[in-house]
Amino acid sequence: MTQHRVLAGLLAGLTLLLAACGAPSKEYIETGDLDALRERGELRLVAPRFDEEQALVREGVPLQEFREQAEAAALALGLEPRWVYADGTGDLDDMINDGRADMIVSNYSVTEDRRERVAFCTPVAVIDEYLVLPKDREGDRLADLGEITVAVPEDTAYAETAAELAERHDTVTVETLPSGTSDSGLLDAVAEGGYDAAIVDGNMLDSLLMDYDGLRKGPVVTERRRIAWAVRPDNPVLRAAINEFIISHHVSASVQTRAQRDWAAIKEEGVLRVITSNNPASYFLWRGELMGFDYDLTRHFAKQHGLRVRMVVRDSASAMFQALQEGAGDVIAASMTATEERRQAGWRFSKRYLEVHEQIIGRADEEPFESVQALAGRTVAVAPDSAFVDTLRALREEGIAVETRLVPDATSEMLIQRVADGDADLTLVDSHLAALESTYREDIQPLWTLEGTREIAWGLRENQPRLKKQLDAYISRNYKGLFYNVTFNRYFKEPKTIRIHEQYRVEAGKEISPYDDLVKEYALEYGFDWRLVVSQMYQESQFDPDARSFAGAQGLMQVMPRTARQFGFTDVHDPEQGIAAGMAYLEWLEDRFPRRLELAQKLYFGLAAYNAGAGHVEDARRLAQRLGKDPDLWFDNVETAMLLLSRPQYARQARFGYVRGSEPVKYVREIRNRYLGYVEFTEENNISAEPD
Q1: Three state DSSP letters for 287-321
Q2: Neighbour tally for 298: CB within 10 Å
Q3: Which of 9, 341, 345, 466 is the most buried (most CB within 10 A)?
Q4: Phi, psi values for residue 183, rounded to 5°
């Protein structure tokens, strides 16, 4: 045993000793679903005890990443993660089914036998299982190795694989070790000469073999084994929530970058990252479309310079400024007031693109103020990092005895609702937001408009002089021009449009589509995030079950009837059959691509194949590799090659020939963007979206 493993063993033993001598055990029995877990306040994550050792000592082993993701999933569900441990892999399912734990988080293979006892979540990896052999054992195929004795722990996927090998090959003998034997323990057993071979997961093996000079990787004995977390079979709500987290986590991570950039770097990447807030003025999702005054303006600016925009959502002014400083975005566009206090704090601003007044908002049954002195003795609720705090301070310095109530993380929309509900006396908002809110609600009104105008501008860092120059030039050309005026009127002056936007705006607690419940049911069966499927459904049919394409695709998911029949569905115009057929087809397409693909990339390739066919996507992957791009990454790699396949010189060399590459490129990007919008607007997460 190596020095690293000895040290890890001592640390693990010390941890157990401290736990035994410390606080009383918090063990309890709970078999309920997510609501019951929320009453308890924690999610008990279970792993084999030997996982602690392997996660601590090695880079390249995925266990630590799994642990971090599982803990993040618990926190996202409003639960405190707590780790509990089983003596061996074979005890994991008993611990969750007996109510001593809630979710298995390990390098846990999906097998048919385990499916009978646990409910697997969306796979977090797809791996091969390998034989591990002494280096002096020659042969690259099982048939060439002669008679071998293979060591495996009992009640594991390895044991199932070994049993199948022994059934097919009379040269294989299986020796079963205790279920608590770790992968390192298996390799120790082979290295010490006790056994001829062992079976180990491929995603663990390369790192583990660094400590074993006398061992080598042998032939693959099982291909495409899925690794997944697991919950109790009667916990479908928890399982659905974990599936949603896994997919949204991987998709959002695939678009997030951090770097402080000025104009040259922005142009080089071709993406402008816009930091904003989810509100009806700046940025929101309406049915399946991304909208908002700031969104439309920044997109118009980006289009003139050949850029895409990526929206980075934060929920407060301070969080937006922090994201800007950390390099999570390039510019803040969120109806932000340019104040001297913010300039002194390090902000820089573009030219103003909007001039507003600040208005005191009260309930509709209150008489408007006759003067600003009516504020004396009243309390105004505002966010602590808003420009309104400075305004109220200035009023007090003028001798008006107005009280300030600070409400952390509150938007103007939330504060207006508090006033309407009687939970706040008054609030202070910008006039364009007050006008927007007053269009579709009758329970509030402006009571007083403060003197002077306030300038709304885009926020920047000091080290962005060239981006500021470009933004200033855009504002000078477009301020109160045709595009600007049409856009402003649509969001702030057209009552009918504003009411429609409010009615169908996507937000937490509202339906996205008329088919949400059906989608959730089948998304759980196929392991998708239901919001991804709804995003694809909008792209395909705009939620019309009778939609039909010129090529004959039909229903909500626009599946060809012949394809639907292959999966057992006969009427794709029926919403339930159409949704199920679309998911079955998408799952089938994803399985056509290499197992090494990261989860988000697998989704992107599956979507591209849904639109253009798997053959054309494989052509694009091969072309991407010839062009020196990564065939396992869709955005900016395979999508670039896909565009080239519409040109004769490239199409002639492709196995499946010509394809209108712009269609799958647009298809994948718009579904991904809309999906991230659904995630951020239904859960209020800080997820990035990258619209064209």
Answers
A1: CCEEECHHHHHHHHHHHHCCCEEEEEECCCHHHHH
A2: 25
A3: 9
A4: -60, -40
Name the residue with tokens 């002195």: 373
pLDDT of residue 441: 79
Q: Is the pLDDT of residue 161 over 80?
A: yes
d(CA 284, CA 594): 36
Q: Is the pLDDT of residue 687 over 60?
A: no
Q: Give, as one character, the DSSP assignment of residue 194.
A: S
pLDDT at 4: 40
Number of Cβ within 10 Å of residue 424's Cβ equals 23
Are 686 and 314 in contact by the 8 Å Cβ rule? The answer is yes
> What is the band of 504 on the pLDDT scale with cuts at 50, 70, 90?
low
More confident residue, 535 or 280: 535
Helix (H/G/I), strand (E/B), else coil: 345: coil
**pLDDT value at residue 12:** 42
What are φ and ψ of residue 404, in 5° steps?
-110, 130
Structure confidence at residue 501 (pLDDT): 65
Torsions phi, psi of 54, nearest 5? -70, -30
Q: Which entry of 53, 540, 590, 670 is annotated as an active-site residue?
A: 540
Return the sign of the alpha-carbon dihedral for residues 244, 245, 247, 253.
positive
What's the CA dihedral at 52, 55, 56, 59 to 10 degrees? 170
- Select from 175, 174, 178, 173 the least CA-distant residue to 154: 178
Structure tokens at 415: 């504060």
- 326 contacts 440 by C-beta, under 8 angstroms: no
Contacts 24+ apart (CB under 8 A), 627-636: 632/594, 632/596, 632/597, 632/598, 632/601, 633/601, 634/601, 634/604, 634/605, 634/608, 634/668, 635/254, 635/255, 635/604, 635/669
Q: Among 48-52, 64-68, 77-81, 312-316, name the one with the lowest average pLDDT.
A: 48-52
Report the distance separating Cα 332 and Cα 342, nearest Å.
13
Angle at the Cα of 395 (from 392 to 398), degrees rounded to 5?
A: 155
CA of residue 600 relative to chain centroid, distance: 9
Cα gap 330→538, rounded to integer Å: 30
540 part of the active site: yes
Task: Outline where 398-447 has alpha helix (H).
Answer: 412-421, 431-440
The SS3 assignment for 130 reads strand
Angle at 193 between CA 191 and CA 194, to 5 degrees: 110
The token duo for 95 is 């611990």
Do the beta carbons of residue 188 and residue 153 sit within 8 Å?
no
The pLDDT of residue 89 is 85
Candidates 371, 378, 367, 387; CA nearest to 425 is: 378
In contact, 334 and 320? CB cutoff 8 Å? yes
Residue 22 is predicted with a pLDDT of 39
Q: Is the CB of residue 219 less than 8 Å from the CB of residue 131? A: yes
CA distance 60 to 367: 67
Q: Report d(CA 414, CA 417) in Å as an integer.
A: 5
Q: What is the mean pLDDT of residues 635-659?
A: 90
pLDDT bracket for residue 179 (50, 70, 90): confident
Percent of the chain with pLDDT over 90: 56
Question: What pLDDT, in 10s, does the model give residues 190-235?
Answer: 999 989 999 998 877 887 888 888 999 988 888 888 889 999 999 9
Residue 619's identity, in one-letter code, is: D
Tokens of 477: 């050309």
Cα dihedral sign, 207-210-215-217: positive
